[in-house]
Design goal:
heterodimer; A: alpha/beta; Rossmann fold; 5-stranded parallel β-sheet; 38% helix; B: alpha+beta; Dna Ligase, domain 1; D-amino Acid Aminotransferase, Chain A, domain 1; 2 domains; 7-stranded antiparallel β-sheet; 4-stranded antiparallel β-sheet; 30% strand
Chain lengths: 446, 222
């Protein structure tokens, strides 16, 4: 069994600080856990009540009938080490939601937590964290109610994050972008379990086909690289590293210590190990969407097809910035396509079908060039009458046939919205700008 | 072997945090790197032993106080004869904190690069490479790798900087000696990977078509 199996799929959960009312964190968490009660035993622990939300409440850890897979701790920070000592050898994992540890200058208290947990054989998530959201098992320890923090649907993208604030932004963007999550883990201060441990679990998690990760700092850089590399061999990992400013001290002359700002080193070693980085939050989300639809493929050459010259040029410019190659059409294809189309179509790469476009033109071109390129940026500005819903079927046929990374940009009118829906149903992710298309495609080309 | 050599330097530093330039260069020479011929003259002595000096010479103050020799005007370049050498020794050895001077054969030209190693808080020992002079001061065009690296890793690191085309020869210039450059990067990475030093800087390393010469070297102890 995997080391963290009982954390992500617990069969028994003790909730310290469980409450009656959603006005309290302990009430929200209880309510979020209720759907799990079919699969797992839930033990609210609160000496003030006989039962909470219809479940018998216990006065302390001593009343637990046996060992639990998971304990969720929401009691004030100074009580946490004591609870962990009571739980010694009676819990496999503890999610410590409570704040007031290293992040608040209480490093000593956090050390006490680590000591109590390791002596009691308990692995810890947190402190100062929201914990785990697992759409497959139904585990939801997030302390915010779903009507305020909207949860992404069940999907194939796993999220690991050091920051709860970033997690809530990621969730908003995933909900808006129609991206589903398999497992999301917010590990806060990372006193014990951190991204490296979670990577190890996710590498073998069948529900997860891509992982995105928000990182401020890693505790053991070499272990991070080892686990991230092992994960990347099985499924794509996309990392957003925050804190890109220079950490080096001011000095009048250049030396290695000054030049080694933390991010410069991080960026370099990520490249050394062939790991993917997202430059910005937007790129992280766009990349997650791309990776949730398609598997990355080898190669860097892209073909851009458009019905608007400017959009094609923007895509071409962004390709250059991303280090993607917009190679010219092979001579024979150029000749053939020129013969097929009116002289005012701009045949090349980008290829501009102009406002005179008809849906079938996309099919003609894509069929002709699909073997010559690694990835495809397809732009169909739906404000012109020649673009219809028929294009959706053409794109669907193309992606099945070509089996290569492709991204799509279209309008927001009724036809455009319908085309976007059809493209995404067929497995082609859509983006609001040509440049975002290209950056997302970059995540699919290695 | 390497650890023992570094340990000897640490002992001779007697608790100080900086290894002196001529001692650092002595280590690099032992490890097979190309270092200018030179002789250390202790403070109070007036001249180099007969026959040890090659003119034109570079004369540098050896001191634990000076961080940037050009900034502190602690070097004299292109010294042509014994007269000039005597004057340079007088001036430089008289500087505050000077332990003596290092007289070296002048090496001119070449492309200046910087190779270094440091202990990163997250990743431990890392090796750095960049082009020297303006490139590093203005553009900070440097790249890092986990240390140690082998020859292949060193060549990868060198290829990671934006200015790497300069090394391959631009505008009719011949390419630099990649073997010698890789050798310097590998050695730096091995030194930092021992964990015995806090930082090492070879800055600059002068790159030529047939050699890579370490013109200045600093080693800082933890």
């Amino acid at each position: 069994m995997k080391a963290l199996e009982a954390l992500f799929n617990p069969r028994s959960i003790a909730v310290f600080g469980a409450a009656h009312t959603e006005a309290k964190l302990g009430g929200t968490v209880m309510k979020n856990l209720l759907p799990m009660s079919r699969k797992a035993s839930i033990f609210p622990i609160n000496p003030k009540y006989g039962s909470i939300m219809g479940i018998k409440s216990l006065r302390s850890a001593a009343e637990l009938p046996g060992r639990v897979d998971l304990a969720i701790l929401m009691r004030p920070a100074p009580e946490v080490p004591g609870i962990l000592r009571e739980l010694a050898n009676r819990a496999s994992f503890a999610i410590i939601v409570s704040a007031g540890f290293a992040e608040a200058g209480e490093a000593g208290l956090q050390e006490e937590v680590k000591k109590a947990a390791s002596q009691g054989g308990i692995r810890v998530v947190g402190p100062n964290c929201m914990g785990i959201f697992n759409t497959c098992s139904g585990l939801d320890t997030l302390i915010l109610p779903p009507e305020r923090l909207r949860r992404p649907a069940c999907g194939n993208v796993a999220v690991t994050t050091q920051s709860g604030a970033v997690m809530s932004s990621v969730f908003e963007s995933m909900v808006e972008g129609g991206i589903g999550t398999s497992i999301t883990a917010h590990y806060g201060n990372a006193a014990d379990i951190d991204e490296s441990d979670v990577y190890e679990y996710l590498a073998d998690d069948d529900q997860t086909s891509a992982v995105i990760s928000y990182i401020e700092s890693v505790r053991d850089g070499r272990r991070f690289l080892e686990k991230a590399s092992a994960l990347s061999l099985k499924k794509p990992l996309l990392v957003l590293k925050a804190g890109k400013g220079r950490a080096g001290q001011a000095a009048a002359f250049s030396h290695t210590g000054r030049l080694a700002g933390r991010y410069e080193v991080f960026r370099s070693v990520m490249r050394q190990f062939g790991l993917r980085e997202a430059a910005t939050f937007e790129e992280l989300i766009d990349g997650a969407k791309a990776l949730s639809y398609q598997r990355p493929k080898k190669g860097r050459s892209v073909f851009i097809i458009t019905n608007g010259g400017g959009a094609g040029v923007l895509a071409s410019d962004e390709s250059a910035r991303q280090g993607l190659q917009v190679n010219a059409l092979p001579k024979d294809k150029l000749k053939k396509l020129k013969a097929l189309f009116p002289p005012f179509y701009a045949i090349g790469n980008p290829l501009d079908l102009t406002a005179q476009v008809r849906d079938e033109d996309y099919q003609t071109v894509l069929n002709e060039i699909k073997d010559g390129y690694d990835g495809f940026v397809i732009i169909a500005l739906s404000a012109v009458t020649g673009i219809t819903e028929k294009l959706g079927g053409i794109l669907s046929g193309f992606i099945k046939d070509a089996g290569k990374p492709a991204v799509f940009h279209t309008g927001r009118d009724a036809v455009g919205k319908q085309l976007a829906l059809m493209a995404e149903t067929a497995g082609i992710p859509c983006y609001p700008t040509p440049e975002r298309c290209v950056r997302a495609l970059g995540k699919l080309l290695e | 072997m390497l650890k023992e050599k570094i340990q000897r330097l640490i002992e001779s530093a007697g608790g100080e945090k900086i290894i002196l330039e001529h001692e650092a260069k002595g280590l690099l020479r032992e490890l097979g790197l190309d270092v200018p011929r030179g002789v250390f003259i202790e403070r109070g002595k007036k001249s180099a032993p007969a026959g040890e000096t090659v003119f034109p010479a570079a004369v540098k103050t050896v001191s634990r106080l000076i961080k940037s020799k050009s900034g502190a005007q602690a070097l004299r370049l292109g010294v042509r004869d014994e007269n000039g050498l005597g004057q340079a020794i007088d001036e430089l050895a008289g500087m505050e904190g000077a332990l003596g001077v290092l007289v070296e054969e002048m090496v001119t030209g070449g492309i200046e690069a910087i190779a270094g190693g440091t202990m990163d808080a997250q990743f431990g020992p890392v090796v750095m490479f960049g082009l020297g002079g303006l490139f590093v001061e203005v553009f900070e065009d440097v790249a890092f790798a986990l240390a140690p690296v082998n020859r292949e890793g060193a060549l990868w690191l060198v290829s990671q900087i934006k200015g790497h085309k300069i090394l391959k020869g631009l505008r009719g210039m011949p390419p630099v000696d990649m073997d010698a450059l890789a050798g310097a990067v590998v050695t730096v990475s091995e030194i930092i990977a021992t964990g015995l030093v806090a930082e090492i800087d070879l800055n600059p390393v002068a790159l030529f078509p047939d050699r890579a010469v370490v013109l200045d070297a600093k080693i800082f102890l933890p």
